From TrEMBL:
It comes from the Bacteria. SUPFAM superfamilies: Hedgehog/DD-peptidase, LysM domain. Residues 50-77, 126-137 have a biased composition (Low complexity). One of its GO terms (cellular component) is outer membrane-bounded periplasmic space. Residues 450-461 have a biased composition (Pro residues). Residues 50-78, 93-137, 432-475 are annotated as: Disordered. Residues 103-125 have a biased composition (Acidic residues). Residues 362-405 form the LysM domain. Residues 1-30 form the signal peptide. GO terms for biological process: proteolysis. This is LysM peptidoglycan-binding domain-containing protein. One of its GO terms (molecular function) is serine-type endopeptidase activity. Gene3D superfamilies: 3.30.1380.10, LysM domain.
Amino acid sequence: MRSSLLILLFCAGCAARVVTPVPAPVPSQAAPTAVAPAASPAVAPAASPAAQAEAPTASPATGEAPAAAPVTAAPGAMPSPAEVAAVVTDAAMRDNPCPTGTEAEEEEDDAAAATDDEGVSEEGELQAPLAPAAPAGPLYTAELSDEALTEAWKKDPATLGSMSIGFVESGRQLNSHRVPEDKDWLVVSPEIAWGTEETVNYVMTAIRAVRAQYPNVPPLRVNRLSTKDGGYLRPHKSHQNGRDVDLGFYYPTAEPVRARERERYIDVAMNWALVRSLVTNTDVQLILVDKRVMRVLYDYALSIGEDKVWLDSLFNAGFNSVIKHARRHRDHFHVRFFNARAQELGRRVAPLLALQPDQNLMMYRVRNGDTLGGIAMRHNSSVVAIKKANRMRNTFLSIGRRLVIPLKGPCTHCPIPPPVQLPARRLPPRTQAPALVSTTPPASGKLPNPCTPAAPAPAPVAGPTGAPSGLSTAR
């Protein structure tokens, strides 16, 4: 019995020695004796390796991110735009100024975008940013009286030129033009490269301005515009009435890059030249692109001396911004133009459509519970006419599909867009000469943050006598 008790005590001592915690090495003599409990994962989740790699390391003394080492150009040599763009891109991606750029949010954004229709992130027809009051009468087709317009529509609608009818998300176009082949651009899909005459001219003007600035620029890819007659273009919500166009990015070579993070591979200087040309040389309504590309373009423009107030009016003016974020636009620009003449003609012709039976059409989006017979009855049409106009073999419908509805008489409930009046182009101020290109970051070590909410659009600041103010009204 005594021997058994000794064995038990011996084993208990062994067990006590095994479970005795080994004291951890003390990092400093001033360390407190009490150890604070570890934070719960729910309170402070560990960052992923990719997020840790992108996040700047804080200084243990001050808690601030270390300043980037200045990069200066060789004495007597001006850095090329490509070198400046490389520095700006690298600094922008390293500092990551936007608080929404975490890996978790990017994955959530991309996952949602992969299941959404691309058109969800494209804005529908809205009133023009900073637009003045609606005009009392025609402004851009004033040479055509109502009687002359009616007579021309009856005899030969082609003589009226391009017309943008309805809305960008529910409309069509007449007398459209196709983007021609040219050495300065590549038409990717000719069958869907149709737009109004104004849109096609704007696209050619903007691209040729970039060629004039950079003679060795590779051809730009011109992707989708609209079909010849407009209407629904899968998978887009817009691209229906000839005013929208998808433009690719400029890369160092003619071959496009297929990587996910396009903002790391694009030629930033050439792409900013394209955006600047669209803003200053055309009546652009909006430019949709991913926020990561926006950040790189903003930082580059600021680094070459562009006016910050003007840049904020383009990037950070909220609803009135010209350049806006859109999901699934990390590899191209979605550009929408005002078409003063085509839009006004489309609005004036809408009540006259019944005079041309072949053009007396309306666009309809199928809703839950719709049947082909019910749609035909509500819109004074027929099942046979709807099937023929949409090349349907049966009467099955899918929710969200857009149908062309031939009408037997005037449409009394078709929506008509508001009168168009072009806002002033947002030209940069000319009172200050562009600053010399410098690759040295600011003293703080961080580039200006384009994601900081800007104050409402400031009132134009009067410049010296004879010089235009901050937001020029020149067209």
